[in-house]
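This section describes the prediction task in plain terms. A model, or a person checking by hand, is given the sequence of a single protein chain and must write out its three-dimensional structure as a string of tokens. No templates, partner chains or ligands are provided. The sample shown here is typical of the held-out split.
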Amino acid sequence: CLTLAAQLSLALGGLRASADLARRLSSALLSAPLSFFHANPTGRLLNVATKDQRDVDQVLVTNLAITLMISFNLLATLVVIMSSLWWTAILIVPLIVFFVRTRNTYQRSLIEIKRWGAVT
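The expected answer:
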């Protein structure tokens, strides 16, 4: 029952995000000056808009569901471990700092790689 509620809330949240993106995108395109359309080919605008919409519709909701599931499993595991062996909390704090720093480094690299991919 809890899984059904979680999946339903994720689906409804994804639907709301998708509708909001479509509304904002349409509003931005309709309010853009004519020089914007002369500078950017229609095909490129359409490709970018449909890719962004697809990412919100499919990729974002799926990744959010997986991230939440893994995060709750990790949190439950850490609570069980720390309740059994309290001294492991001392070891977990430096590990969390290490993983956050590693994630930040990877995230910056990933943004640059995606930027390169978008240019080509």
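For orientation: The mean pLDDT is 86.
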